[in-house]
Design brief:
This protein is mainly α. Helices cover 67% and strands 1% of the residues. Among the domains are: 181 residues, Alpha Horseshoe (Serine Threonine Protein Phosphatase 5, Tetratricopeptide repeat); 101 residues; 105 residues, Serine Threonine Protein Phosphatase 5, Tetratricopeptide repeat (Alpha Horseshoe), CATH 1.25.40; 101 residues; 66 residues, no CATH class. A two-stranded antiparallel sheet has the order 1-2.
């Protein structure tokens, strides 16, 4: 037989020496050697060529080379090629996923002169071309069968439809479908499922509707499942119900695949009752007992709709029925234990995993690890990780991300270091987790190291990694690097803007935060509730009511008025801006109030000294079924402190422990020390600090020091100051406070000594800064400021007021300014903490 050579203009690439040795060892004929290992190239499709753009090289991946050669030798060593045997080999290769081998067999058959009219395996061959997902090669087989005149065969045309969908060419599939002279159920199902798999869900439903109403096709499983999946993806309950009606009409409601599809559709559409109805209406108990998939769909649906207790009950019922759960079941049940924080049930599920032999399944181990972390048992989670035989990227990523998200950033960094030593390059998700850990620890050097690694791996252009880097630099108080990172992003989404704006807010850059918020709007990016709360916190920091109203109006227009998080932020912001009436109005209009809502309004009334109204609100909170928490306690104790209600403060402090079972924290002891100190019970306040179970910080000692100054207790002040300076030797505010105490007692030498000590230590105070809003205009003042355009009038007014109060009998305490330090710093340091008011340093 003569050697068949390739068509003119096609470049051939001969076999390597090793390939020739293998072929020779199996005694492959030289003509096979000439074509089997050649690659051919052509610029475009031609019906006169035999797949001129297709590679015919032998495949060494997945399938056995020796087995392929033996099969080919058996076929091509025959005196006459057996077309049926060749077709069966093509089908076998295609079914096994060896698409290149299947196509190579057909091309060799052509080269051996096999009569094409005898070949009956074109649908299978076309399927092999579809398996390559290469539309250019797919168009070549289309041109080939067109040239041969086989497009009148409906089976071949349906195969071409499927091939185009496999290649992701919806437009080609639609054009071919519309030109078909004849269509059958396979044609329609191919289009419906093709659109569904291409995520064109509306088009999938449209073709399903056309199939039903225009052509009256009877339903089958494939079309219905695809249409149900499209309805679920669109969360279109009305379409899903229509398909359900067709399923019942055509008697397919007993099909187990369609039952699962209907349950999944209803669950994804949020119609739990309908899903339960389908599940309970299964007529065949054997179908219910024998189909684990239906149970899994129900359990997953319950979990996704927040029906956690129903999911757990159904899981127990599944075990009672004797149905053995698989990894999907266990993952779903562990997920609901994580959401419910049900540690006891999670441990029981852990035992069940071993009884069903699923302990080495990577999905189960990941879900188990996640459950232990979510339930707060980090040691058990890490033990699962260390004992895992699936020592791969998934398990490492799960362990690192859970440590970072569960408040164990140090452990996350240690695991990442171990992973880097053993495995090298992490993936993008792992980098995000480690950057979160660096943000939590404000660990800039490590964050910069991760930044360098991201650049090296090419992840710095990833939007999520870029946003995490912005957040990391902002949390590490390097706002300039955060700005630079933000400016280098090619695209910006809500997450990246949120990272920048919250970074500005955290670094006390309110003006920059507001400007960035306006810039974000100019890029037509709509804020979410988290960003709204962040911007409102900026307004609260500035205490500018007009700005708060402006932001409030914007958020109302954007549809955030009913959002609980935004409403809570508005309550707190208006209160800090001095507009308690607006806070109360928003609170009363809220349809659903949570603990934070009540705490915010209680804090607002207490901040403004409305103690009686605050306690009325507190009683209403309890009547509404809300349990007071630590934030409620802090708000009430702080209000009692500012109002001087010692008895009421002690009463609530005791009930906090006895009635509400809340363990007092440092902030609550600080409020009580401040309350006792203001009332003059200094020794009692000191004893409380010494007896409390938590370690005192400089704030609680500083509160007592201020009370010592107010009540001129020099002896206790010395003792308290020593505690403060042991904690923070470089503190200037409390040194100024102690110096002022001595000056008030007329002990100028002691005061001068402290001022000199401040100078010797090189400490410098930050000038006191205040601002006031008058007629929607903000006026900013710094201590001893002369820059305001009305400074002369302001100082003249202060002098006039001083004269008036002297006439009324008040004698101001005037202390000399030693070394340029006065008590402005002291007042500026504590005024906003004490009562939310700002002192104007003029």
């Amino acid at each position: 037989m003569a050697v068949v050579r390739p068509p003119p203009g096609i470049q051939l690439y001969g076999p390597s020496t090793n390939q020739r040795r293998l072929l020779t060892a199996f005694k492959v004929p030289i003509n096979t050697l000439n074509h089997v290992l050649y690659s051919t190239r052509a610029p475009s499709i031609s019906c006169n060529s035999k797949f001129q753009n297709f590679s015919c090289s032998l495949q060494f991946q997945n399938n056995s080379f020796q087995e392929s050669i033996v099969k080919d030798k058996f076929l091509f060593d025959q005196p006459k090629i057996n077309v049926s045997l060749g077709g069966k080999m093509i089908k076998e290769y295609t079914d096994d996923g060896y698409f290149d081998d299947a196509i190579r067999i057909y091309i060799e058959m052509l080269e051996y002169g096999v009569p094409v009219g005898e070949f009956r395996f074109f649908p299978c061959l076309i399927k092999a071309f579809g398996g390559l997902c290469d539309v250019e090669k797919g168009r070549q087989i289309h041109g080939h069968v067109l040239k041969l005149g086989f497009l009148d065969d409906l089976y071949i045309v349906n195969a071409l439809l499927g091939m185009y969908w496999k290649c992701g060419e919806a437009a080609d599939a639609v054009r071919m479908f519309e030109k078909m002279r004849e269509r059958d159920l396979v044609s329609w199902n191919t289009m419906v499922s093709g659109f569904q798999q291409s995520m064109c869900y509306a088009d999938s439903l449209m073709f399903f509707s056309r199939m039903m109403w225009e052509f009256g096709m009877s339903l089958n499983r494939v079309g219905c499942i695809s249409a149900l999946s499209s309805s679920a993806s669109l969360e279109s309950l009305i379409h899903g119900r229509e398909i359900h009606a067709f399923v019942i009409k055509f008697g397919l409601h007993v099909d187990d695949f369609l039952v699962s599809g209907l349950i999944g559709m209803y669950m994804k559409c949020g119609s739990v009752k309908n899903a339960e109805h389908v599940f309970k209406s299964i007529p065949n108990e054997d179908l219910l007992r024998g189909n684990r998939v239906i149970w899994n769909v129900m359990i997953l649906g319950y979990v996704s709709n927040g029906c956690l207790s129903q999911a757990f009950v159904l899981f127990l019922e599944m075990l009672v029925f004797g149905i053995i759960p698989d990894s999907s079941t266990i993952v779903a049940v562990l997920g609901l234990c994580s959401q419910m924080l049900d540690f006891a049930s999670g441990r029981q599920i852990h035992g069940i995993i071993f009884s069903f032999g699923l302990e080495n399944d990577v999905k189960v181990e990941t879900a188990l690890l996640d459950m232990y972390f979510k339930c707060g048992d980090i040691e058990a989670g890490l033990k699962v990780f260390r004992r895992s035989q699936n020592d791969n990227l998934v398990m490492w990523g799960a362990a690192i991300s859970n440590c970072a998200q569960s408040g164990y950033p140090t452990e996350a960094l240690e695991l990442f270091h171990s992973f880097s030593l053993d495995y090298g390059s992490p993936d993008c998700v792992m980098l995000l987790s480690v950057l979160r850990a660096c943000s939590s620890l404000s660990m800039k050097p490590k964050g910069m190291e991760i930044h360098g690694l991201a650049v090296k791996m090419g992840f710095d252009s990833d939007l999520f990694v870029g946003s995490a880097l912005i957040d990391m630099y902002a949390k590490c108080r390097d706002i300039e690097s955060a700005q630079k990172m933000f400016g280098g992003l090619q695209t910006r989404d809500l997450v990246s803007w949120n990272a920048l704006i919250s970074g500005y807010a955290q670094n006390e850059c309110p003006d920059e935060s507001l400007k960035a918020f306006r810039d974000m709007q100019s890029e037509h990016i709509r804020p979410n509730a988290v960003m709204a709360a962040c911007i409102l916190s900026v307004c609260a920091h500035l205490s500018v009511k007009s700005l708060c109203k402006e932001i409030h109006g914007y958020l109302t227009r954007q549809g955030f008025e009913s959002n609980v998080l935004v409403s809570n932020s508005l309550i707190a912001t208006y209160a800090k801006c001095g507009d308690l009436s607006s806070s109360k109005t928003i609170f009363e209009k809220m349809p659903g109030k949570n603990n934070i809502s009540w705490n915010s309004i209680i804090l607002g009334f207490g901040m403004h000294g409305n103690i009686d109204e605050m306690f009325v609100l507190f009683e209403k909170m309890k009547a509404a079924g809300m349990k007071p928490d630590h934030a409620t306690s802090s708000a009430i104790l702080s209000a009692c402190s500012h109002a001087g209600r010692v008895d009421k403060g002690w009463e609530y402090f005791n009930s906090m422990v006895e009635e509400y079972k809340l363990e007092p924290q440092l902030e609550h002891f600080t409020c009580m020390v401040d309350l006792l100190g203001r009332a003059g019970h200094l020794n009692q306040a000191y004893d409380l600090i010494m007896a409390m179970p938590c370690i005192p910080d400089d704030r609680i000692w500083g509160s007592l020091l201020r009370s010592c100054k107010t009540h001129s207790d020099e002896k206790l002040a010395r003792l308290v100051a020593n505690h403060i300076f042991e904690l923070d030797h470089s503190s200037i505010g409390y040194r100024v406070l102690l110096a002022n105490l001595y000056e008030g007692l007329g002990k100028w030498d002691e005061a001068s000594g402290i001022r000199s000590e401040i100078k010797d230590l090189g400490l410098k105070k930050t000038p006191g800064c205040s601002w006031v809003e008058v007629n929607n205009n903000i006026h900013i003042f710094i201590a001893s400021d002369q820059s305001h355009y009305q400074s002369q009038e302001i100082y003249a007014t202060i002098e006039s007021l001083t004269t008036e109060i002297k006439r009324a009998g008040y004698v101001p305490q005037l202390h000399p300014i030693i070394g340029g330090l006065d008590d402005t710093y002291e007042e500026g340091l504590h005024s906003s903490e004490d009562n939310g008011l700002f002192y104007m340093g003029v």
